[in-house]
Structure formats: C-alpha cells, structure tokens
Amino acid sequence: MEYIFVLASVIFVLGFIFIFQGLMNKIIHEEVTKDVIQKMQTKLFIRVALFEVIPIFMVIGAFIFMEGQEQRVDPTIPIVIILSVFLLGAFRIFMSFRDVKASVKVNELINPIQTLFFISIPLLGAIPIISIIMLIIVSG
C-alpha cells in the first residue's frame, strides 16, 4: 500500500514534465515576448493545479487507509524511488530550460524564462515531498 505514494509521485512528475516541456517547446518554436511568457506561466500554474488533483487524492486515500493498520511499513525503498523520480524530473526540466535558453536570441527574455524555471522546480517537488512526509508519518 505504501507504493501508492510512489505512484502518485510518478504520475505527478511525469505529468509536470509533459506540461513544462510543452511550454518550453512553444517558446523555442514561436516568437515570444515577455507578456507571452507571463501568460505561459499562468497556464503552467492552472494546468499543474488541475493535474495535481489526482495525485493529491491518491496520497490522501492511501494515508487514510494506512493510518488504521497495525502493521508498519518500511519507507526506505519507496522514499528512494520517490527521490529518484524527483531528481530525474528535475534533470529533465533543467535540460529543457537549457535548450530554451540556448535557442533564445533576445536577452530580455532570459530573465522571465529563468523565473519560470526556478518556479517550476519547487512545483515539481510538491507531491514527492508530501508523499515522503506521509510515508514517514505512516511508518511511525
């Protein structure tokens, strides 16, 4: 049952990477301005919020189900898997950011793109961190 936390983290990280890379591809292949990047940032927040619902329900459901059980779980392997998935996702986001930064020819667009990148890393870590904390709580 502890692997539901892992599944929630994997679903979220893969979905987040898909959303982020879609936005980065749009920046690479289209002419963008600061206003367009700000609108993309808003779209990122909305899409992530909508996509985050399913993993949150999975984490809450697993926590409720596991709280009443007498047997304790060993959280080591699930935590290692969650951290690995997070690190791979962060690496993939960094690679997308690096590609976009290299393709942008207007220097004034680099700061908004960096802001988008630095906002994305904590967003990516939200569900994995919640899953790790819940695993630690459940393992008692």
Features:
140 residues; mainly alpha; 4 helices; elongated
Blueprint (SSEs and pairs):
Layout: H1 3-29, H2 34-67, H3 76-103, H4 110-139
Helix pairs in contact: 1-2, 1-3, 1-4, 2-4, 3-4
Transmembrane segments: 6-24, 44-65, 77-95, 116-138
Protein name: F0F1-type ATP synthase membrane subunit c/vacuolar-type H+-ATPase subunit K
InterPro entries: ATP_synth_F0_csu_sf
Can you walk me through this structure?
By secondary structure, the chain is an all-alpha fold. It contains four helices and no strands. Helix 1 packs antiparallel against helix 2 (34-67), helix 1 runs antiparallel to helix 4 (110-139) and helix 3 (76-103) packs antiparallel against helix 4 (110-139). The chain is elongated and about 60 Å long. The longest helix is centred in the middle third of the chain and has 34 residues, at 34-67. The chain has helices at residues 3-29, 34-67, 76-103, 110-139. Helices cover 85% and strands 0% of the residues. The chain has one domain.
